[in-house]
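Support request, please re-run this one:
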Amino acid sequence: RDANSKVKTPPAAVFMGDSITEAWGVADPGFFTGRFLDRGISGQTSPQMLLRFRSDVIALRPRVVHILAGTNDIAGNTGPTSEAAFEGNIESMVELAKAHHIRVVIASILPMDALGWRPDYRPAGEVRRLNAWLRAYAARAGAAHLDYYSRLANPAGGFRKDLSNDGVHPNLTGYAIMRRLAADAIGRD
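Re-run finished. Output below.
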């Protein structure tokens, strides 16, 4: 709330997300200076992002919203969730953005084949399924799709070892790749 109250000029883009987005702002603060705003909150799932979408995106009047969600839904951070519930939350965020004339960039879920806090679950298959849905939905909805996954994944569906220190979050090299892709997807608005 405090950070939003200090925004005086509409940004080119708001990056809505979880710890991956939040850590991006820490790892690459120069990327989030005025033109782009980081609105990542660690641990959040898509229903939590949907609840704060009005205050953290619509009220700021960006030209573009970059939505990166799904890792914590898959991990079950707020309890078990279905793929259909995740899909509905993404659809709602996109519909809200479009109703307010905000262009949408839907990012793929980043690769992961193991979760340190859920060692019994191997999520690579679910990540692939949801990424296929995100790509198809973006095309149907007239949104841009940003494929981070294919640039960051190893053949097993996990993070390339040189791009992540924990298998879930990018390291500085991984964020540098994401920065170039995001800047291209958002364009020169």
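The CA atoms of residues 11 and 35 lie 5 Å apart. The beta strands are 13-17, 36-40, 64-68, 103-107, 144-146.
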